[in-house]
Amino acid sequence: MGTLPSWExxxxxxxxxxxxxxxxxxxxxxxxxxxxxxxxxxxLRSFAGFLVEDAPPVTSIAQVTRRHVExxxxxxxxxxxxxxxxxxxxxxxxxxxTLRMFFVRIDEWGWDxxxxxxxxxxxxxxxxxxxxxxxxxxxxxxxxxxxAQAQPRLLVRVTVEVLLRTGLRVGEFTALPADAVVQIGAAxxxxxxxxxxxxxxxxxxxxxxxxxxxxxxxxYVRADHPLLLPRENGRGADRHSVTxxxxxxxxxxxxxxxxxxxxxxxxxxQAINRGMSLEAIAAMLGHRSMDMTLRYAKIAARTVADEYFxxxxxxxxxxxxxxxxxxxAIGPKMARLRREHHRLLGNGHCTRPEELECAYxxxxxNCSFFQTSIEFRPTLQAQHDDAETKGQQHxxxxxxxxxxxxxxxxxx
Length: 412
Prior knowledge:
mainly alpha, DNA polymerase, domain 1, 5 strands
């Protein structure tokens, strides 16, 4: 956001303001992460620079009024951003939010330097857009993975595959310690240490990734290196080196610019579209709040499409009726449907109306542990015929294979 003056440059003009702000930074440095303190440092230097430039009579924080805040907002909005002519809305919100918290805290702490009243309000922060996470669709993700696997540099492949298959944040990936791969029971897991949200977690690790990581470490990593996946020269990877790797692979795959976080979004979207629960996705991604995970529910395209088309025929049939059903007939009809389709499950009942499709109707029959016998042939045949009638070829094929299995069993 342009070039900000340093504390050393500001101190001769406003020594009291600099002293108050630096004391504040020391205090929050005891409880916040270094990155958060650095961001607060930038926000405070920005406001101090404004006071020196546009409000020279103000020599202490206690003299700051509401008018100064109102003048600061348009001044800040006109500042150049990083690689942009103006700061972004997100930058405005962050700078103003950090400044407001500064005033709130020193007021709560009872500092003599605090203004008589907090001069900022929540409404001073601009409202930000909340776009849905930008994930790669299945075809693009497959192209990216194939392009990575074709690269001669093993670090490229291990970087893309680990990010795409684990959903790690790039900072988590670059900071993985050498002992991050652990064995719990019979399965390999990835231990992700305390990071952004101050919590560690374990991720199930595909055996393919275990072998890939082991191959890379055997070739390029010293046994005593503290990191799991440093660069070939032993230096740790960072956000910029990971982004360069991804975009080189994306270019080879014929894709546009890809940000590392898109691979995290991609895994989450793939998982929810294939039936993984939101709770499991939250645990996998290390979300502290389900609100973060619920964003992916909005982009579960396949889930939404399946349920939409499952009811389309029934809705079309409803619109096709010229005369509505009499009100007194609805109750008995629904009661009859529920009696006929009151299917007993392992821990409850399914009360789905008979005419309504269900994407999970044959989920047990697809399980490798499912077993049937000749006594269920009439039911299986009825399921097969029903699927044929409705044009559900995949379901018809499933029950056809089960019936064939019974026939082979009889023959033997």
